[in-house]
């Protein structure tokens, strides 16, 4: 363990693909101090709000502590031996009865590389099926396809440093300011140093990333291919092609150009003016060093792969690739999405950038793993996997560190799939998620601060994540749990790892198979000699790791115009604009976009534990343009219903000009564990890119209406409560407890009667006050000694919300003065 500098331990942030270095120091009180790691090349000491608040999320509230059978119906605690035997038996039985493709793993970019490696080895190497897919499928699968089609390998050619060296940075479908904040800070700082650095944001929304933009192109949703086909044509028409590069290093240019030339009506399709288009095209063509950085706005599309290749085509055609300050740059969403791609945790690759359709690769891995049962063909991708489950074809599934009930499209179908599957095991560190609610068996995995292993960030930088806290209860590393199950399935000699360093060493050796002369981009040959101490002390390494990097390196790939295709040339791909699947109609005339908000992460199972992070956005919301709001009679902060044939979702209206008229934006984080009826995925149909299998999360036709209810309440409580019988609630973490925001169709006095049942006994004082005017405002407060336990305030919707939000109440010692203030009903705003 790297424990230096007065007990500070170097580790890595749990959240986004920037992969910031963190230093953590446990305190005797059980709390964790956090600061940025100044020596880490991703962030040089900087952290965003989520990284700074990492220490807030290590509380034990809601942790899953024990393997539990039937957790939702007569729960039965198991020891580890019984739990892993049960998993092994259920999987073995299904394989015996229905074949190896009747079982599946659905894994996550939250897993460490060592966890991923062992899961992939078990499923593909020994079970003999490729039915293992990662939730990274939802994040950057289209980029993987785009890279492989163009470069012959899943190669990210650039480094973060290239943002600082560029003349122009184009952000496409990326709200970098919120989704990769420290990278955005680096870009902002680079622009301060070099005001000539031209930043262009291409996004239907005017996001926070536009704060530093010289140009914002608010194009129509889904029109990126048309935009970049137009750029390719412009490069040709204005003599900005790099013919030498095209001739020496690429193929398929003429077909791609022909397809681009056939692209009619670019201004109409994109909704951009000719002047806007010309300005962007001219800047791209004339700046020498251009980085095009893109993420989910490009990838999460039914033509995501073509969007990626339309961008790469422009870089290849102008030779803007393979040297400092230049290149296409797909940034990953999750902390170890890149690690999953390397390990082969996607259903359509083998391991270490080796492929199913290459017999030599198949043989190399079979020999290395000493197996004659290596899967021979790709498995089911995420959406297909849950479709197969719903059709009864999957008899046992293991879901690791992810929450598909919230994150996959068409939530109803996902529920049906999990109900249909005879055996669902979920390993997680959180006890109550929408997915654990569907499990037959839950097993406790370690959380971020307890895990040890490696992660890879968006610039191919491998960093150690180190254990900084002991694990609570019976929580174990994922690689250990999987190895135990593998052993009980009869593969003990192949999974007898003593610690995660041994897994990593094996993985490093695997990366060298048939790769001693750089045949593949990904190699860890320089780490094959690491001993336990070397692994323990490992500093960040950027792959390819040809020799152990003792200093920070910033390596680029594809620098010599050599690609990983059979003939070594890059492929242009002819791309064609196609409208997104879900078109608007009279019934559903609005377009719903979805994405992240600044201070929350995915399904909030961790960020939802931080009072600091909870303050920024307290409830689910939908952004709506003022014209659209006026048309639908929606007022600011009002509860609204967004709906279509898939389902409905409730959120507070945020009226703003960030979105275009006719468009809406909802964050992805709230779900049935943190709110009622506020999940965007309930509205999103499972349309996917046919090559990458990535769902179209950014373009859903919906309608919207005010959701007028009769009464509202705020409920402050030290422990969570169950709220049945109300139409809407959202839970906000506050210091020492939770604040529930509630709305109901019941009259205020009936809502008050309902919620009063949630006031726990055990108090020694009960204060109450009633405005008396037909129960239009009522308040109860329970107190024990010097502590307020719970406080409930109910009011009729005919009154505006009270100013006094009670969120500070649990922090203050109870006093007569406070009692007086609480019993004087607040004036309304
Ligand atoms: Fe963590 Fe990403 Fe923030 Fe860095 S930018 S601190 S990796 S969430």
From TrEMBL:
Domain of life: Bacteria
Pfam families: Molybdop_Fe4S4, Molybdopterin, Molydop_binding
Cofactor(s) named in the record: Mo-bis(molybdopterin guanine dinucleotide); [4Fe-4S] cluster
Secretion signal span: none
Classification via InterPro entries: CT_Nitrate-R-NapA-like, MoPterin_dinucl-bd_dom, Mopterin_OxRdtase, Mopterin_OxRdtase_4Fe-4S_dom, Prok_molybdopt-oxidoreductase
UniProtKB keywords: 4Fe-4S, Iron, Iron-sulfur, Metal-binding, Molybdenum, Nitrate assimilation, Oxidoreductase
UniProt-recorded Gene Ontology molecular function terms: 4 iron, 4 sulfur cluster binding; metal ion binding; molybdopterin cofactor binding; oxidoreductase activity
GO cellular component: membrane; oxidoreductase complex
BP terms from Gene Ontology: cellular respiration; nitrate assimilation
Domain 4Fe-4S Mo/W bis-MGD-type: 6-62
Record PANTHER family: NADPH-FE(3+) OXIDOREDUCTASE SUBUNIT ALPHA (PTHR43105:SF9), RESPIRATORY NITRATE REDUCTASE (PTHR43105)
Family statement drawn from the similarity comment of this UniProt entry: Belongs to the prokaryotic molybdopterin-containing oxidoreductase family. NasA/NapA/NarB subfamily.
Protein name: Nitrate reductase
Species for this entry: Vibrio ostreae
């Amino acid at each position: 363990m790297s424990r230096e500098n007065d007990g500070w331990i170097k580790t890595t942030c749990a959240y986004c693909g920037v992969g910031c270095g963190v230093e953590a120091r446990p305190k005797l009180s059980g709390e964790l101090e956090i600061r940025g790691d100044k020596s880490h090349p991703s962030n040089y000491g900087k952290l965003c709000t989520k990284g700074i608040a990492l220490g807030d999320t290590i509380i034990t509230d809601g942790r899953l502590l024990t393997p539990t059978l039937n957790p939702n119906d007569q729960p039965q605690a198991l020891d580890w031996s019984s739990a892993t035997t049960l998993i092994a038996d259920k999987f073995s039985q299904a394989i015996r009865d229905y074949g190896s493709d009747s079982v599946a793993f659905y894994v996550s970019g939250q897993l460490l590389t060592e966890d991923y490696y062992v899961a992939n080895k078990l499923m593909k190497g020994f079970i003999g099926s490729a039915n293992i897919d990662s939730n990274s499928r939802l994040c950057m699968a289209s980029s993987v396809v785009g890279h492989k089609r163009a470069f012959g390998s899943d190669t990210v050619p650039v480094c973060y440093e290239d943002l600082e060296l560029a003349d122009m940075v184009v952000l496409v479908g990326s709200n970098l300011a919120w989704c990769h904040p420290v990278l955005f800070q680096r870009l902002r700082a680079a622009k301060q140093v070099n005001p000539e650095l031209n930043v262009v944001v291409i996004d239907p929304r005017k996001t926070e990333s536009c704060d530093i933009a010289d140009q914002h192109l608010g194009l129509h949703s889904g029109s990126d291919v048309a935009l970049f086909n137009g750029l390719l044509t412009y490069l040709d028409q204005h003599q900005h092609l790099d013919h030498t590069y095209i001739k020496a290093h690429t193929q398929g240019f003429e077909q791609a150009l022909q397809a681009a030339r056939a692209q009619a009506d670019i201004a109409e399709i994109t909704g951009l003016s000719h002047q806007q288009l010309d300005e962007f095209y001219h800047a791209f063509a004339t700046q020498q060093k251009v980085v095009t950085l893109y993420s989910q706005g490009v990838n999460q599309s039914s033509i995501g792969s073509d969007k990626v290749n339309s961008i790469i085509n422009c870089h290849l055609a102008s030779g803007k690739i393979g040297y400092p300050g230049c290149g296409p740059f797909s940034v990953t969403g999750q902390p170890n999405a890149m690690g999953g791609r390397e390990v082969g945790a996607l259903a359509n690759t083998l391991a270490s950038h080796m492929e199913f359709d290459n017999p030599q690769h198949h043989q190399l891995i079979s020999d290395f793993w000493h197996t004659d049962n290596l899967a021979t063909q790709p498995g089911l991708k995420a959406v297909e996997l849950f479709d197969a489950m719903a059709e009864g074809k999957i008899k046992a599934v293991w879901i690791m560190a992810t929450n598909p009930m919230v994150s996959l499209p068409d939530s109803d179908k996902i529920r049906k799939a999990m109900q249909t599957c005879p055996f669902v095991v979920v390993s997680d560190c959180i006890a109550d998620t929408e997915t654990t609610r569907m499990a037959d068996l839950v097993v406790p995995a370690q959380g971020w601060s307890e895990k040890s292993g490696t992660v890879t960030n968006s610039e191919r930088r491998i960093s150690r994540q180190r254990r900084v806290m002991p694990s609570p209860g019976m929580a174990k590393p994922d690689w250990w749990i999987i190895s135990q199950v593998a052993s009980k399935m009869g593969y003990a000699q192949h999974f007898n790892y003593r610690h995660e360093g041994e897994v990593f060493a094996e993985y490093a050796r695997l990366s060298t198979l048939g790769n001693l002369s750089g045949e593949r981009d990904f190699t860890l040959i320089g780490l094959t000699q690491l001993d336990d101490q070397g692994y323990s002390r490992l500093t960040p390494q950027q792959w390819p790791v040809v020799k152990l990097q003792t200093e920070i390196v910033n390596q680029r790939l594809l620098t010599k115009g050599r690609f990983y295709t059979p003939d070594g040339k890059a492929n242009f791909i002819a791309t064609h604009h196609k409208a997104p699947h879900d078109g608007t109609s009279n019934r559903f005339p609005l377009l719903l976009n979805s994405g992240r908000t600044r201070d929350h992460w995915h399904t909030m199972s961790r960020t939802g534990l931080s009072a600091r992070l909870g303050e920024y956005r307290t409830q689910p919301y939908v952004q709506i343009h003022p014209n659209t709001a006026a048309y639908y009679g929606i007022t600011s902060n009002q509860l609204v219903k967004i709906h279509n044939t898939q389902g409905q979702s409730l959120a507070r209206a945020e009226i703003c000009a960030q979105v275009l008229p006719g468009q809406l934006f909802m964050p992805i984080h709230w779900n049935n564990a943190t709110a009622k009826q506020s999940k965007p995925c309930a509205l999103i149909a499972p349309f996917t890119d046919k090559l990458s299998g990535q769902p179209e999360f950014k373009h859903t036709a919906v309608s919207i209406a005010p959701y007028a209810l009769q009464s509202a309440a705020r409920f402050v409580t030290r422990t969570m409560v169950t709220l049945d019988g109300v139409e809407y609630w959202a839970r906000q973490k506050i210091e020492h407890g939770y604040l529930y925001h509630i709305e109901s169709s019941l009259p205020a006095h009936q809502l008050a009667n309902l919620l009063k049942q949630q006031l726990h006994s055990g108090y020694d004082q009960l204060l109450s006050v009633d405005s008396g005017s037909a129960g239009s405002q009522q308040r109860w407060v329970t107190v024990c000694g010097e502590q307020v336990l719970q406080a409930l305030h109910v009011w009729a919707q005919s009154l505006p919300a009270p100013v006094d939000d009670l969120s500070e109440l649990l922090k203050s010692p109870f006093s007569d003065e406070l009692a007086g203030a609480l019993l004087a009903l607040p004036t309304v705003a």
